[in-house]
Amino acid sequence: MTEQEIKKSIVETGLTLLEKKLVARTWGNISCRLDEKHFAITPSGLGYESLTTEDIPIFNMEDETWIGRKPSSEKRIHAACYAQYPEVNFVVHTHQDYATAIGLVGVEGLEMSEEEKALLGEIKVASYGLPGTKKLKKGVEEALKAGSKTILMLHHGAVLLGNDKEDAIHKAEVLEEVCKRAVDKKVGAVAKGDVNGTVNASVGAIDEMLLPLPLTEQAVDLAEKIAKKYPNVKIVDSPLMEKLSELGGIRAQLDDMSQMLGAKLKVCENNLQRIMSVLEKNDAVLVKDLGSIIKAEDKDDVEALEILINKAGISKLYTAACGKKIKLGAFDCWLMRTVFKLKYSKKKNEKAREKGDDGVSGTSASGAGESAGGKDEGSGAGNSADKSKSKKAEGIRVLKFFLFSVSAGVIEIVSETLLEKCLPWEAMTTNPQIKYWVSYLIALILSVIWNFTFNRKFTFKSATNVPIAMLKVALFYVVFTPATTLLQKYLCSFDWGAADSFKGQLTTCINMVLNLTTEYLYDRFFVFRDSLDTNKKALEANN
What is this structure's pTM? Predict the structure, then answer.
């Protein structure tokens, strides 16, 4: 084949794999050998639907250089496949649901016909490594050297080596059929009470669990309320979602889940305030007796997350049925999520702008209302209006915080004065320091509770967990109070010249300014950051 024909075959394969649900979005990658030193491969970060032959780079296996767009981060895995097997001319790396689930537990006991065994050969599971790393490549190389051309990458997906395009695609299909039978049998058998999975359960066990259930009126009403803040939101209910709620959610077992959703898909009560609080920090949540709620920057992302949750759910059901507790490490999840947000979200935004520049409608990944290509004046005006509104809202928030803090200061002064004047100190102690500190600490606690209560309800309008939020505020004062006391003592040790007689009052004013500034920033960006405007008052205002 010519170089152009090879590139065309890769584009066609991407669409075929999408149609057969063996890949989605930018997941996975495809390559085709050009000659002994070169192969064509899908580029990094571009979806299969929009891929053209001009997007396909050529990779040099000898010096690891390339011509064209940046190639997939898994290019070295493809290079290892071609280096190990000269007869291999086509490689596909898929993220297919059932093969990925099987890879988590192992391939021992997979039931295959003689034809399937002949086609797939010996299936190996490659040891885990983060996407694009040498560790991942090394795990695949070990499986290749052991004679395998059908490899499951732990927590990640599958690699299929073929003599040509048709051979590689056929292997991916057959592998998925084999793995689906195994998952169906195990999950179906356990569902029927056979914990050992020995009965011949229905082959459609998972298919039945994926069937969508009609949404209740309550779910539709809830979606409308959530859409006030998150325009692209969807509620998905199915037997699978309900089962995942029973299991307590999903700890990330797969790389793509950790990238797009984070370390855990949580479960929360069917309560609007609680749901809004969770959605502040997460793009999806499982809700008891309701299903899953998904929000994203655009409708394409919502659909992608729905696909991802179903995929992660299949793996969760299978590992649970096998009695295995499998999850990715917390650091690995954090790292993959961070890289995804910084790299792939940015790349999607750039692609959308490229389309906008060409006069084609595009959607920015950075949020609703932003113009594709930056050329839509109406959208630009909308952005300006939104920013102006946001600044005004933040200004009002600052003002409220200031007024409530002043009232808390009044509470502290009045409380301390009353405690010093009204308590029978003569009967308790003759030490003036004890009298001062007891009065001061009680007054301080009362003022902090006052300030916290009103700011949480009216300034930050938060539905966050009250004890946890109060603990965070208490930690601020544990550090701030002794620090400012030492600062005031230090400042008062200097000669202030003409203002020396007022240095006590001046240092108190300095401490008050520091208190107001640091506490606002601490509350705004740490205590209530992920739960702003989630309480009943805020939601009613939005409606």
Answer: 0.66
